[in-house]
Fold this protein.
Amino acid sequence: MGEQLADTSAGDLPIPGEVDTRVFQWVARRGHLVPEEAAAELGITPDRLDRAVAVLSRLHLLRALPFGESGQLRLAAVSPEHAAASVVAPAEAELRKQLAQAERVRAELARLAPLFDSGDRRRERQPLDEVRELASVIDVIGKLTESCRTEVLTCQPGGPRAPHLLEQAFARDVAMIRRGVRMRTLYQHTSRRHQPTQEYVQRITGEGAQVRTLTALFGRMIAFDRSTVIIPHHEEYDGAVVIRDPSTVAYLCSVFDQSWTLADPYAPSAQGDSALDEIKQAIIRLLAEGMKDEMIARRLGMSLRTCRKHIAESMESLGATSRFQAGYLARARLTG
């Protein structure tokens, strides 16, 4: 009966097989590895024992003890929870690095877009327009809404929106949907607990729109027919940038599509809601990174008071006395 050897396909890390698991159990029971005794009791060859030790060491499930009187290296078992935290931490750091790089790329594209047409080339339509006044922004959005024919994509970070803005949006959105325009909107999970947003979503989805939520979103944008995208102005609070450059528009729409596949269909928050758990987990991760309360609240689209309430509840449930300790304990629990 042949035993399947460790698989290294998952991120080049091995998956412990049956023999590897038996060796780990033996070391955990005895306190430290005695190669000759382990091989004899488990009925395996020294070579197979060495391979099991190599797999367990790569997974941080074995650690070296101080040299004994014999002068030989001794290995002891490590808690799977601690091993998981040690193995997964680099992957989490790399993921955060990639997300940060994606945000930088998007910012650089927006910043460089005005330079694209700075030479002698002329187009009937400029690839980018800056609109600095709120009244002009509203006018531009109104015109694009009226001319939209196939699809509108909306990403709305920042938590719940004011009821009067939702009412204005409903009238505008219904008109588009009834013309046959497909509408998809992304909110943050915190909007699930906001009654005016719940009512708006119920009404607009009843008209045929689709709404999903994520813990955190990449940024505010509205895309019309995948040909024009509106994003916030980097200097003017009430301003906007209208992007028509095909490459930039395609990139921003692809970012939206990727977030959409990761998001959950909108549903009012309830006790035991997994979205609420995701929010609390995100808060702990951001605390472990040293982020201040105000920045966490802004990133996750909630009030500072609500954010601090979640922080206190999470630290109490984890038994943590500091923010960094809370982040460490939460990561160990999630990966354990």
